[in-house]
Design brief:
Its main location: membrane. With about 230 residues, the chain is an alpha/beta fold. It has helices spanning about 30-35, 45-50, 75-85, 100-110, 125-135, 150-155, 165-170, 180-215; strands at about 5-10, 15-20, 25-30, 55-60, 65-70, 95, 115, 140, 155-160, 175.
Length: about 230
């Protein structure tokens, strides 16, 4: 089967992609794409959604002609990372543009505490600010252009080293690998550094308490004892 040539390709964050195939404008995307064209999902979408699948619809000249069912493969190290973060006393929150059912399925499997689903790229920073308004210190992990505002908004922005330059430029910490368990090493290093800072402050305070009076001559012999 020959693959037809596509031209005039363009992509739209959180919406989908568009191209011209043999004179027909074809678009593939999620719920926001359907909203833009005021179109309904295919009936099979409800069944796929219940299975936690990501659903994309195909439109040709604004008509729905098909759908795609996608599923995220959860990496084993992701489970280990979430478990380790919980053991360290951290709450894990997922902010995603995926549908609620998909996000809930992934969250249930990984043990994620809170989920913000169906979030547009420009709204991710607002979700981080919402968590901060609850009095939480937020460390945001991301790798894409869409994550850059949220990385800048967070108390600590952590970019995946293999991510985009924009994300890396917006973060305060850059991971050398894409292994999510690396996030825990950042937390452990930060806490160890903080403990060492406090130890140094106590040592400095104790030294000054003892050394300053000595330097001022507290133990120096008085004039009366020398007459």
């Amino acid at each position: 089967m020959a693959v037809l040539k596509a031209t005039d390709f363009s992509s739209y964050p959180a919406v989908g992609v568009k191209a011209t195939v043999e004179g027909t404008v074809v678009e593939v995307g999620g719920p926001y794409l359907l909203d833009q064209h005021d179109r309904d999902e295919l009936p099979v979408a409800d069944q796929w959604r219940d299975q936690g699948a990501i659903i994309l619809h195909i439109l040709a000249e604004n008509r729905v002609i098909g759908a795609l069912r996608l599923a995220d493969e959860i990496r084993p190290e992701s489970r280990e990372a979430v478990d380790a973060l919980h053991a360290a006393g951290a709450q894990v929150v997922m902010i995603t543009g995926d549908a609620q059912a998909v996000a809930d399925t992934v969250a249930a499997e990984l043990g994620i505490d809170r989920v913000f689903a169906g979030v547009r790229p420009e709204d991710k920073a607002a979700k981080v600010a919402e968590l901060q308004s609850e009095g939480k210190k937020v460390a945001m992990v991301g790798d894409g252009v869409n994550d850059a505002p949220a990385l800048a908004q967070a108390d600590v922005g952590i970019a995946i080293g293999a991510g985009t330059d924009v994300a890396i430029g917006s973060a305060g910490v850059i991971l050398a690998s894409s292994d999510p368990r690396s996030v825990l090493s950042v937390i452990e290093l930060s806490r160890a550094s903080y403990r060492k800072m406090k130890q140094n402050l106590w040592w400095a305070a104790g030294y000054n308490l003892a050394a300053v009076p000595l330097a001022a001559g507290v133990l120096a012999p008085s004039d009366s004892c020398c007459r």
